[in-house]
Amino acid sequence: MTTIRGFHHPLRSCGAALALVSVGCTSPDVTSPPAGAPEVTAANLQVPAASLSVTGKIAFAIGGEIFVVNANGVTRLTNSAALDGQPAWSPDGRKLAFVSNRAGNDEIYVMNADGTGVTRLTNNAAVDRSPVWSPSGAKIAFVSNRADQHDEIYVMNASGTGVTRLTTNLPFQGCGGVNRRFEESPTWSPDGASLHSCLSPPVSATRLT
After folding, report:
1. Closest by alpha carbon to 143, among 159, 163, 162, 158?
2. Are residues 99 and 109 in contact, defined by beta-carbon separation less than 8 angstroms?
3. Within a domain: residue 37?
4. What 8-state DSSP symbol labels residue 157?
5. CA distances (Å), 27 to each of 34, 101, 180, 201, in order?
6. What is the CATH number for 197?
7. 16: in domain
8. Which of 69, 136, 143, 175 has its CA at 20 to 30 Å from residue 188's CA atom?
């Protein structure tokens, strides 16, 4: 991986600067889906496939629903006609953030570890996905295309308030014309002082103003 960019973005509610560093990631080969295959959205993409809590429980998504595995077996947490996926445990193992299209588009929700108390955190017409808790559990980083239909990194309070955009990727001249980079896979540092993400494509390019 090659470091593409690094900058400090002040989060006033934290009382400290949050550094975000984007690194180039190699995209996997993409082939055309077979005829009749369902549309791939943030909720049914199932990324990450599983999430391990500090209490030893494993949350995973399959068939558009979220399940938990523990010593007593498998428990189904969601049960709706919508697609639920991308479960992410809070640091204390008491809550799960996840993505669902139950309101018509992909939004971020949170629920208790037993599946109760489902609360919607984001509410807009864009795609919000890939929630990741900060080490303290006070913040959730996520990916959204709400600003200009390009994936960028955002952060919000665990309550869904205080949404702040952290990245802005400018257009660049690629071999196919003017294009945009996009952010993926936000990951917190252990001390919660910085976020790391994948920037794609990672190739050198001329920025356009």
Report:
1. 163
2. yes
3. no
4. E
5. 20, 25, 15, 8
6. 2.120.10.30
7. no
8. 69
Q: Are 138 and 145 in contact (CB under 8 A)?
A: no
Please indicate, yes or no, if residue 15 is contained in any of the structural domains: no
C-alpha neighbours within 13 Å on the C-beta side of residue 4: 22
Each residue's pLDDT tens digit, 42-90? 444 344 468 989 889 999 999 999 999 988 899 999 998 999 999 999 9
Type of residue numbered 160: G
Contacts of 116 (CB under 8 A, 6+ apart): none
Domain count along the chain: 1
- How far, in Å, CA of 42 to CA of 21, rounded? 23
The whole-number pLDDT of residue 121 equals: 98
Task: Decide if 22 is inside a domain.
Answer: no
Measured CA to CA, the distance from residue 176 to residue 47 in angstroms comes to 29
pLDDT interval class at 29 (50, 70, 90): very low
Task: Find the domain containing 97 and state its range.
Answer: 43-207
Judge if pTM exceeds 0.90: no
What pLDDT, in 10s, does the model give residues 84-129? Answer: 999 999 999 999 999 999 999 999 999 999 999 999 999 999 999 9
pLDDT at res. 123 = 95
Dist CA 158 CA 134 (whole Å): 9
The rounded distance, in Å, linking the Cα atoms of 180 and 168 is 10
User: Which stretch of DSSP H or E encloses residue 130?
Assistant: strand 128-133
